[in-house]
Specification:
Elements: E1 12-14, E2 19-24, H1 35-43, E3 47-50, H2 60-63, H3 68-83, E4 88-94, H4 96-107, E5 113-116, H5 125-136, E6 141-143, E7 160-162, H6 163-178, E8 187-192, H7 201-209, E9 214-219, H8 232-247
Parallel strand pairs: 2-3, 2-4, 4-5, 5-8, 8-9
Antiparallel strand pairs: 1-3, 6-7
Length: 248
């Protein structure tokens, strides 16, 4: 059965020039969080794909049936489809989308990556144990974490977070972390000073592990969903400058 997509969470696709940009959203959220940035890239003449990842933009019950393999498979397939039409492709991702973008950079010949508050490191044994305890206690869904914005805006995420799906996300991220040294393409890391979803050590681990050049931009006035927060213009302008550089 095909589920109805929530208005505003539709995937976005824009034909353009020979350079492609794959844009990936975060866990429990959807394309609404990345649409402005995708439109900015399309306006610059890039061919852009912003897919709706499996289980997102419909119902939380749909997400509870999905795992890391669904999201990673969709991300890699989207890159392959875009690469078939474009001479070179860059990836841009927020949160889980940053982790997926990192996976794509490990597995495919990306020209560069923009990672916005990415999750590329396990939150740690204590948090993993807490997730297991919640599941064992019968709490399959807890309060959502996808609307962490300093400006109080809508993060366009589900109201809840499915624990079993989150557990598979963390397990997938562990495999991504193990492959960081394979990344040789340039990376732009855009990181909020205050983030209530992803820990700072994600960017530290990334910069310490990859072999390609990295640039770090700190956000002083945004929380996790920075693409919709007070620093949105900085996020978008820094991304566009980076894309112009790696495609030049």
């Amino acid at each position: 059965m095909t589920l109805e997509i929530v208005k505003g969470q539709e995937p976005f696709s824009s034909p353009g020039g020979p350079f492609g940009v794959l844009v990936l959203h975060g866990f429990t959220a959807g394309p609404a969080t990345m649409r402005s940035l995708a439109l900015r890239a399309a306006g610059a003449g890039y061919t852009v794909e912003l897919p709706l990842l499996p289980g997102h933009g419909t119902t939380i019950e749909d997400l509870t049936t999905k795992t890391w393999s669904d999201w990673s498979g969709a991300a890699l397939a989207s890159f392959d489809e875009l690469a078939a039409r474009c001479a070179r492709v860059a990836v841009v991702g927020l949160s889980m989308g940053g982790g997926l973008s990192t996976l794509v950079a490990e597995e495919r010949p990306v020209v560069g990556s923009v990672l916005i508050n990415p999750i590329v490191t396990s939150p740690g044994e204590a948090d993993e144990n807490a997730i297991d305890q919640l599941i064992d206690a019968g709490l399959e869904v807890v309060d959502g974490i996808g609307s962490d914005l300093k400006n109080g805006g809508d993060g366009f995420a589900y109201a809840g977070t499915p624990m079993r799906s989150l557990k598979t996300l963390i397990e997938g991220i562990k495999t991504v972390h193990a492959g960081l040294s394979r990344i040789t393409a340039p990376t732009l890391l855009i990181v909020s000073r205050e983030d209530h979803v992803v820990y700072w050590n994600n960017c530290d681990d990334y910069m310490a592990s990859v072999t390609g050049p990295t640039e770090l931009v700190w956000l002083e006035d945004s929380y996790h969903v920075a693409t919709l927060d007070n620093d949105r213009e900085l996020v978008e302008s820094a991304t566009m400058e980076f894309l112009a550089t790696v495609f030049s």
